Amino acid sequence: MPTIYEKLKSDHDTHRDLLAKLVETEGNSDERRELWKSFYYDVSAHAAAEEVAFYSPLLAESDGQAEGRHSVAEHKELDDLLQELNDTDMSSPGWLTRLRTMKDRYEHHINEEEDDIFPVAKDVIGADRSGEIAAEFAERKKEERTLVDEKAEEALKD
Ligand SMILES: [Fe+2]
Ligand SMILES: [Fe+2]
Questions:
Q1: Nearest ligand atom owner, CA of 75
Q2: What's the total number of domains in the chain?
Q3: Residue 75 alpha carbon to ligand 1 centre in Å
């Protein structure tokens, strides 16, 4: 069973790959719509599950609070950028400009998680809880994914 660190890193790599493909897309194309949907759904579920399974045990320890707060604040900032992209017409040039901004912010965020936060978490949370946290992350991500899909369906109906 992969550790929580391997699971998070593997999601991040999927997101890096989708973003690299997205910046190459043009206008309101099927390719752009499909890639955006894959990225948006997965990153939303990832961030929500990461907060519950990974950041909450980190925030519970005084040595992990600064890192935890910093990352959760970045999640909020990123979520605002994601919603802005959802609300922008894909065929407008502004969409790609906003995507590039979000891509830079997101890549900064996941590089920081991997390079700065994981080492602190490994110290603070300890290896013995990593399996339990990985299982909780997988479970929550599945649940969050269903919620995100439902919300998206609702938005499409409006
Ligand atoms: Fe994150
Ligand atoms: Fe992450």
A1: 1
A2: 1
A3: 6
